[in-house]
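Notes to self after the Tuesday call (sharing in case useful).
The group wants a holo model before anyone commits to mutagenesis around the pocket. I volunteered. Ligand is NAP. Logging inputs and output together so the record is complete.
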Amino acid sequence: MTPLQTHQPGVGLVIGAGGGLGAALLNDLRQPGPQAQAAPTVLALGRHTTPVLDYTDEATLAAAAQWVAAECAALAQPLRMLVVASGFLHGVIPGQAEGRSTQPERSWLQLDPAYLAHCFAVNAIGPALVVKHFFPLLARSGPCVAGFISAKVGSIGDNALGGWYGYRASKAALNQIVRTAAIELARRNRQAVCVALHPGTVDTPLSQPFAKAGLTVRSPAVAAGELLAVLRGLTPAQSGGFFDYRGQVLPW
Ligand SMILES: NC(=O)c1ccc[n+]([C@@H]2O[C@H](COP(=O)([O-])OP(=O)(O)OC[C@H]3O[C@@H](n4cnc5c(N)ncnc54)[C@H](OP(=O)(O)O)[C@@H]3O)[C@@H](O)[C@H]2O)c1
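Result:
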């Protein structure tokens, strides 16, 4: 059971809900649990929701957090589950020359300040601002889970291939932010869990250009089910960790 499917009332929130994984996580979380009386309330935020949430504009996070606080107050329930499914690997960077699509670096010769800055803005700084604006809304007692979708390529210990400097470094930064936030969160609620998660290779717009034969690619629905199963099984003692979609601990 997720914290939303226990007898403890609570609201869920998916950030990055318009993405491949985010939409599948939202759909899964909105299903009623075995012991729930009704489908839990799970809110969705992203660049195409109302209110909008865009990491490149902190004011949108502040306004979106106020909206979530108002929804929780109206239901008289705290925020019990937060899943952050946003991320950036390739594509057009806002404000850059029109049509200039970026790709992860294959060599140091391709290092580009604008691409690096955008990787950090979406993969690390944005989730840090989620901690700032949304963690104060998390339940102060009872089960409570925050899961941040990271990537195994953000593991420094596991890096044997090189390449993808910006994505790797920004996900490593995310992992450190998650670990740090988990420590502070535990002081607020000893039953809280805050982790970084690797979803495996999932068929979404983010992975599509890198699809290749021999790679096991799962559907967003399957990956979402696996990630939520991992989140369900974690205990507060495992908070601050980095886990893959099978629940295996990954090296930092
Ligand atoms: N797919 C894979 O194989 C794979 C593997 C390892 C890790 N991951 C990680 O899994 C997570 C989900 O990725 P995905 O595969 O579902 O990719 P996706 O379909 O491209 O979704 C990316 C998400 O990031 C959001 N986003 C991008 N820029 C943003 C910004 N400036 N502000 C707020 N949100 C922003 C998008 O929001 P909009 O809805 O507003 O566009 C979208 O929801 C990411 O953290 C990714 O790094 C994926």
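Two things stood out.
Strands lie at 11-15, 42-45, 79-84, 91-92, 101-102, 144-149, 192-198, 242-244.
The two ends are 28 Å apart (CA to CA).
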